[in-house]
Amino acid sequence: MRRPLIAGNWKMNLTREQSRNLATAIAMDANTSRADVVLCPPAIYLETVLETARSIRTVGNEFGIGAQNVYDKPNGAFTGEISTAMLEDLGIGYVILGHSERRQFMHESDDVVNAKLNTVLASSLTPIVCVGETLEEREAGRTLEVVGRQFEGAFAGVSEGLASRAILAYEPVWAIGTGKTATPEQAQEVHHDLRKLAVLRYNSALGDSLRILYGGSVKADNAAELLSQADIDGALVGGASLQADTFLRIIAAAR
Ligand code: 13P
C-alpha cells in the first residue's frame, strides 16, 4: 500500500562531472516499478543532475531530484540561502529537512525545522523530514522521547491535509556514516513508534499512509532485510548512494 522510496543523499561530495556520471548511470538503470527513487545532490549541482536525468527519462515523483536543505523565507536579504520558489523554478520535487548534520553543525533547532516544513508544505515540494537520536540518548533509554520531540516539533501547527504530503526519515545519529546499522528489529521498533505518534497526532489514515524511510549505514547487503520490516518504507542512503552499482542494488532490494 505504501510505495517504497529510495533516496540518495549525496551530502557535500562529488564534482560536477562525477555528479553527471552518477546521475547518468542511475537514471539509465534504476527500476522504478516497485520504488520511487530520489537523488539529492549538493545544491550547486541540482540543475546539472536534473538536466542529466531529464535527458534520459521522465523526472517527477517516481524518479525525482531533491535538495538537501532550503530556507524558510520566500526571498530577500538572506545571503547564501535558497528558497522553495527557486527549487520549484528548476523543477526540483523533494527536499530533505532537519537532517542530523544540519541539526548538529548548523544548529538547526526543532523550531527551525518547523518553520522550514511549513514553508515547504506551502510549496509544491515534498519534504523528507529527518529525526533520530544520538548514541548517548539511546543508551539512556530516551530514543522515543527524542524522536517524539523532533516529530512533534517539526509538525507543530501543521494541518492534517498538509502533513499527509510529508515523508519521514528515521536516522539514528549513531548509525550515520559509522558502518553501524540499526538492526532491522531496532529500526522497526522506532518506525512503529513513529507511526503510532502520527496516528495519535493526526489519525489512522494518515499514520497508515505515512512513508517512513530508514537512514544510517544502509548498504547493498543489508537493504533487503531492513526494507522487509513492516514499518520501513524505504531508505535514505548516504555513503552507498555515491556509487551507482551499490545504489542500484539498494533500489532493487525494495519490495
Ligand atoms: P550513511 O548512509 O552514509 O550512513 O548516511 C545516512 C544519511 O545520513 C542519509 O541522509
Key traits:
single chain; 255 residues; alpha/beta; TIM Barrel; eight-stranded parallel beta barrel; 8 strands; 42% helix; globular; binds 1,3-dihydroxyacetonephosphate
Describe this structure in words.
With 255 residues, this protein is an alpha/beta fold. It has one domain: TIM Barrel. Strands 1-2-3-4-5-6-7-8 form an 8-stranded parallel barrel, surrounded by 5 helices. Helix 3 links the parallel strand 3 and strand 4. The longest helix has 18 residues. The mean pLDDT is 97. The site of 1,3-dihydroxyacetonephosphate has 14 residues, from strand 8.
* Shape call: globular
Give every kind of bound small molecule, once each.
Answer: 1,3-dihydroxyacetonephosphate
Q: What is the CATH topology descriptor?
A: TIM Barrel
Name of the top-level CATH class: Alpha Beta
Helix content: 40-55%
Class based on secondary structure composition and strand pairing: alpha/beta
- Distance from first to last alpha carbon: 11 Å
Q: What percentage of amino acids are in beta strands? A: 5-15%
Q: What count of helical segments does DSSP give? A: 12
The SSE string, one letter per element, is EHEHEHEHHEHHHEHHEHEH
Spans of at least 5 consecutive residues whose pLDDT stays below 50 are none
Any idea how many domains? 1
CATH architecture: Alpha-Beta Barrel
Whole-number mean pLDDT: 97
Major sheet description: 8 strands, parallel, barrel
How many β-strand stretches? 8
Strand order of the largest sheet: 1-2-3-4-5-6-7-8
Radius of gyration: 17 Å
CATH superfamily: Aldolase class I
